[in-house]
Automatic annotation (TrEMBL):
<protein>
    <recommendedName>
        <fullName>DUF676 domain-containing protein</fullName>
    </recommendedName>
</protein>
<feature type="compositionally biased region" description="Low complexity">
    <location>
        <begin position="24"/>
        <end position="49"/>
    </location>
</feature>
<feature type="region of interest" description="Disordered">
    <location>
        <begin position="19"/>
        <end position="56"/>
    </location>
</feature>
<dbReference type="InterPro" id="IPR029058">
    <property type="entry name" value="AB_hydrolase_fold"/>
</dbReference>
<feature type="domain" description="DUF676">
    <location>
        <begin position="81"/>
        <end position="311"/>
    </location>
</feature>
<dbReference type="InterPro" id="IPR044294">
    <property type="entry name" value="Lipase-like"/>
</dbReference>
<dbReference type="InterPro" id="IPR007751">
    <property type="entry name" value="DUF676_lipase-like"/>
</dbReference>
<dbReference type="Pfam" id="PF05057">
    <property type="entry name" value="DUF676"/>
</dbReference>
């Protein structure tokens, strides 16, 4: 059962920026979500007593050194016609750069020469089994090399599919630096007032790889892991299968499997995905996410055999409702867009009852302790991530010829078999283009 604070948190999700009946402007951008905090987390938060893994100072120092134009890094134009906005595409598990063939071509066509669209290749195929942290560090190093080679870059965005979204979340934390790009432009005044009225605890600031962070977009990413009822849909919600999946997963997908099922690490240590919902002492996961002007998550409401609706949209079971069936004008299979403002809290925790539940789930898993552990950790992850504002886009392939390809349709893995998702890519492109125009306009005021 939800506590009173949780009920309050769910109520804060009611503001919608567009709906399925709107015409023409149904895909317009809502208020800019809140950004990261420069303040330390409270002493009773998860981060205060947590060892967040290896240090990343060398990579972070290199990222900070890439700032070449001081704090004023936004520009209105580029006389040499060189790209100044890096868009990094990150694929998912057991995938490769070929998964982005259609999306890359379409984004280049729609976004123009101002964008350098780079498809990450550092975590192909079985490299995705080495853990979210390992893959995230490789991605961070890869992005840093691109930034070093392309001197014209001033802004950065990420577009990730499935597990790639978690890799990207880890990578941006490695690349994050608190050097503040001043966004206090007149064009941002309305957005700042909106955020302040919501009591958001995170102030603007910080850069990623020395660049201004603009968009962080994920498609069908398991932000809350895959433990829990129908979070890994191909198990069909059968309790015995979901119970057995957690201990078996590491044998098939390595350390990544343990992390996705929230059983990694010692019993008294919070799992990686819970740590990634806060700012730890050495790695500022939440501040890195908060540095982006806009965070957008696309989620399949059904027919996704790999990632459930809850985990990909960062929602509780009680926050799910019957999705609309009618697509937004011009964006086939995109059925709803909702802006979820930040919900102030003191961040996630790993209480003693979670320690006991994790130990039981690791050593003697049964249906009862597996459910108990997941419910505790899932709620804490949501509490942490909802401290930031999110734009949530629901996608439904119920009318597609092959709806059960939803997980690959959403990013058009293959143009012939998964072309039902072309409307989703169009929506992504228009959202990126709109945010780009907004950032350039605010810089000119």
């Amino acid at each position: 059962m939800a506590t009173a604070p949780m009920i309050h948190a769910r109520c804060a999700y009611s503001l919608r920026i567009s709906n399925r009946n709107s015409k023409g402007g149904s895909h317009s951008q809502g208020p800019t979500p809140s950004s990261s905090s420069s303040s330390s987390p409270p002493s009773n938060s998860l981060s205060s007593g947590t060892n967040c893994g290896q240090r990343h100072q060398s990579l972070r120092a290199q990222a900070m050194s890439t700032v070449t134009l001081g704090n004023s890094i936004a520009s209105i134009g580029n006389l040499k016609n060189d790209p100044d906005h890096l868009l990094v595409l990150v694929h998912g598990i057991l995938a490769s750069t070929g998964d982005w063939a259609y999306a890359e071509a379409e984004l280049k066509r729609r976004l123009g020469k101002n964008f350098l669209i780079y498809v990450s290749s550092s975590n192909t195929y079985t490299k995705t089994f080495t853990g979210i942290d390992g893959a995230g560090k490789r991605l961070a190093d890869e992005v840093l090399q691109v930034v070093k080679k392309t001197k014209s870059l001033k802004r950065i965005s990420f577009l990730s599919h499935s597990l790639g979204g978690l890799f990207a979340r880890y990578a941006i934390a490695v690349l994050y630096s608190p050097d503040t790009y001043s966004r206090d432009q007149p064009g941002d005044l309305a957005n700042r007032m909106t955020e302040n009225s919501k009591g958001a605890g995170f102030a603007r600031g910080g850069m990623i790889a020395g660049l201004e962070a603009i968009n962080f977009v994920t498609l069908a990413t398991p932000h809350l892991g895959v433990r829990g009822k129908k979070q890994l849909p191909f198990l069909l919600g059968v309790p015995i299968l979901e119970k057995l999946a957690a201990p078996i997963a590491p044998f098939f997908v390595g350390q990544t499997g343990s992390q996705l099922f929230l059983t990694d690490g010692k019993p008294d240590k919070p799992p990686l995905l819970l740590r990634m919902a806060c700012d730890c002492e050495e790695v500022k996961f939440l501040s890195a996410l908060g540095a982006f002007r806009c965070r957008i998550i696309y989620a399949n409401v059904s027919y996704d055999h790999m990632v459930g609706w809850r985990t990909s949209s960062i929602r509780r079971e009680t926050e799910l409702s019957k999705p609309p069936r009618q697509s937004l004008d011009g964006y086939r299979h995109v059925v709803d867009v909702e802006y979820c403002p930040p919900v102030p809290s003191d961040g996630p925790k790993f209480p003693p009852k979670a320690v006991k539940a994790k130990e039981a789930a690791q050593n003697a898993p049964n249906t009862q302790n597996t459910v108990e552990y997941h419910e505790i950790v899932e709620d804490e992850m949501i509490r942490g991530l909802q401290q930031l504002g999110w734009k949530k886009v629901d996608v439904s392939f119920h009318s597609a010829f092959w709806p059960f390809f939803a997980h690959n349709n959403i990013h058009v893995k293959n143009e012939w078999f998964h072309n039902a998702g072309v409307g989703v890519i169009a929506h992504v492109a228009d959202s990126l283009r709109q945010q780009e125009a907004s950032s350039i306009l605010s810089a000119s005021l």
